[in-house]
Amino acid sequence: MIEIKNINKTFGDRHVVKNVSCVFEPGKTNLIIGESGCGKTTILKLMVGLHQVDGGDILYDGVNFPKLNRKEQQEVRKKIGMLFQGGALFDSQTVEENVRFPLDMFTDLSKAEKMDRVNFCLERVQLTGRNKLYPAELSGGMKKRAALARAIANNPSYLFCDEPNSGLDPKTSIVIDELISDITKEYNITTIIITHDMNSVVEIGENIMFVFKGENWWVGDKSKILNTDNKELFNFVFASEFMKQFFKK
What is the pTM of this model? Predict the structure, then answer.
């Protein structure tokens, strides 16, 4: 479980994150949504230590991450998997080498043990036999699946996904959503997803935080979001063409 308590962040005279608190539970798909510039990406960066909080607490299973020293924070980071918006695969490395990268960085596994783990992760994301391909030889969906395999290679307790469906067609987006959701439940991972994809919200949104102008404006699940009386959330949700079409059915 990850809990954030009254976290704040300013950049110059801009108060970007304002006393945000929320609980993200293991085994659930926890979504952070909101319009561009609302502060959701900054919240993610604060949670993984890419930015330092100006105030507040970030608790990983009760351990206050900002209060740890550098070495202690590194130990927590070993338990974190990251799925970046563009996949962020290393172009000069094969799929196999990309997935093995966190194992090389953070484990003392033997070469054979690493290969077993790589192959397991590739099978889990439906990329069996693609080991020797390079990113340039993959479709957009395959790149995201390879990046997801890398994110789970080190058997993380926490998984952060930044716009996992960015640039993907609707059918491929559903595949990625289902994979993330299934892996989250199968391994009881605390998964946090930043997304603009309203299909993801209504399909896999089990715990959703809506951020508005740097504040936690609303929290609920995918069923409650469809019947919200929160004006700002309603305007955000139903600005989407997908949602307009969804309610015409």
Answer: 0.91
